[in-house]
Amino acid sequence: MAHKPKRPLSTYMLWFNSARESIKRKNPGIKVTVVAKRGGELWRAMKDKSEWEAKAAKAKDDYDRAVKKFEANGGGGGAANSRAKKRAKPAKKPSKKSKKDESDEDDDDESE
């Protein structure tokens, strides 16, 4: 069975994937979190994002076409998918203690 196409990357993620190695080269040994933070700073400072916006728009168009094709070929909904999903089991309730169990615990406290 074919799977639904993945959603396209955002404009920022397309840019960041291409810029990540450059950021690492300029700052050797920095942590992943710092790379991400630096990427966000560079992205906010960037004036012309049109190249990446065009790439994101193309990716979105490709995704939309792939989803339409997927749905046209029987994917996406209906009885076939509802059977595939498993029903969640109800959560178990905590077991109740009997009066005998409670009195045994009280006896333990007194003997100490």
TrEMBL record:
Gene Ontology CC terms: chromatin; nucleus
A GO molecular-function descriptor: DNA binding
A Pfam family per the record: HMG_box
CDD domains (UniProt xref): HMG-box_SSRP1-like
Protein location: Chromosome; Nucleus
Residue ranges occupied by any HMG box domain in the UniProt entry: 5-71
Disordered: annotated segments: 69-112
InterPro entries on file: HMG_box_dom, HMG_box_dom_sf, HMGB
Record's compositionally biased regions (Basic residues): 83-98
Record Gene3D superfamilies: High mobility group box domain (1.10.30.10)
Feature: DNA-binding region: 5-71
Highest taxon of the lineage: Eukaryota
First and last residue of the signal peptide: none
Keyword tags: Chromosome, DNA-binding, Nucleus
Main location: nucleus
SUPFAM superfamilies linked to this entry: HMG-box
Statement: the UniProt record of this protein carries the keyword NADP: no
Protein name: High mobility group protein D-like
Native organism: Drosophila rhopaloa
